[in-house]
Write a structure and sequence with these properties.
Length: 376
């Protein structure tokens, strides 16, 4: 049985490696033909051709869905292997080390920018539904952030569910942020921001809330890529994109149950669903959402709620993109453009330059540029 599961996954990873070289050079019209010929349009937005082609390939090979097996170990290997298969070849200095956590050592990786003077630091929390993901799965993204934003990045591995239920991951991330505050000089950090993708975005907001409530210095910035901010979410986007767009309702439910099952924490508890919390006093935020993401509406609402609380927000919705578009960036298309734009925004803000308070949703499709932003 294990062998039959391994073969299609290995074949998919080989295809992804090839796709990194081929897809960024293909025009959209060719990708549409390979994906079946007809664009997918929902809510007036048209899905990026590269994303549509990857979805078609997943459907044909039956390899889509991290939670399809129901086995955390299998899901973790699938995420790590697929991300590593597409990892960009970006040379930045790194150092791996462990820091103290509330229940043992936490593995971290420090990415250093090519500058000799002090630079801002982003403490990064990886996504993966609180169940999957690690330093290796997000190594390529962290390297790109470090190089292109010219900032330090400290990537943190926290305890995963279901072995470690909520609030273990939150406690670990708070401990990592607290450690970074105490070692800013050692890290060469001029100021400290926090950020993450998907569940890492959730953890980012929860760290900001805990820091506020526990009297810690607030981060300079919170950076959220397609965050899950309401685990009880009953939004329209969760219904629209409940199946067939990289993360399904079934997977979201599996992640949530793995994280909370057996605890007395409800899905709408502010301890895990920051959209339900009092947001006053939080740091400025960059919030990036995708038009084809089940988490779209709650991410957009989080940006609006911050604004109502008087927090400076730069919110950008990329209408043509699905959940997890950072992982698609090495394949080119709109995802590559979007990640380049979001990293540019991070660098701009942390360098002290101003950003517009808000950015209207993108029209379907971004620029016509299709060369991968992940070339070294």
């Amino acid at each position: 049985m294990a062998r039959s599961k391994t073969r299609p996954i290995a074949a998919t990873n080989a295809a992804l490696r090839m796709g990194v070289f081929v897809l960024p050079r293909l025009p959209d019209r060719v990708k549409r033909v390979l994906a079946g010929g007809k664009p997918i349009t929902i809510d007036g937005n048209t899905l990026d051709a590269t994303a549509q082609l990857v979805l078609t390939a997943q459907r044909l090979t039956r390899t889509g869905g991290l939670g399809a097996s129901g086995d955390p170990a299998v899901a973790r290997a699938l995420m790590r292997d697929s991300h590593v298969a597409m990892a960009p070849r970006i040379a930045v200095p790194t150092t791996d080390f462990s820091i103290p956590g509330p229940a043992g050592e936490l593995r971290t990786r420090h990415y250093r920018p090519p500058v000799k003077a002090e630079a801002p630091l982003l403490v990064f929390f990886h996504g993966g539904g609180f169940v999957v993901g690690d330093i290796e799965s997000h190594d390529g993204l962290c390297r790109m952030i470090c190089r292109d934003a010219a900032i330090h990045v400290l990537s943190v591995e926290y305890r995963l569910a279901p072995e470690h239920k909520a609030p273990a991951a939150v406690d670990d991330c708070v401990a990592a942020y607290r450690w970074a505050l105490g070692h800013a000089a050692d890290l060469g950090a001029s100021r400290i921001a926090i950020g993450g993708d998907s569940a890492g975005g959730t953890l980012t907001v929860l760290v900001a809330l805990r820091s506020r409530d526990e009297g810690l210095p607030q981060p300079a910035l919170q950076v959220l890529w397609y965050p899950a901010v309401d685990l009880s979410g009953q939004t329209r986007s969760r219904e629209l994109f409940s199946d067939g767009f990289f993360i399904s309702k079934q997977e979201i439910d599996w992640f949530t149950d793995s994280f909370l099952g057996g605890t007395d924490i409800a899905t709408d508890d502010p301890l895990v669903s920051p959209l339900q919390a009092d947001l006053a006093g939080l740091p400025p935020a960059l919030v990036f959402t995708g038009g084809f993401d089940p988490l779209r509406d709650e991410g957009n609402e989080y940006a609006a709620a911050l604004r109502r609380a008087g927090i400076t927000v730069h919110h950008r919705q990329f209408d043509s993109l699905p959940h997890g578009f950072a992982s698609l960036a090495p394949l080119g298309g709109d995802s590559a453009d979007a990640i380049a734009a979001t990293i540019s925004a991070v660098g701009t803000y942390l360098s002290g330059r101003s950003l517009a308070d808000d950015h209207p949703p993108e029209p379907s499709g971004l620029s016509s540029r299709r060369r991968s932003q992940y070339d070294a």
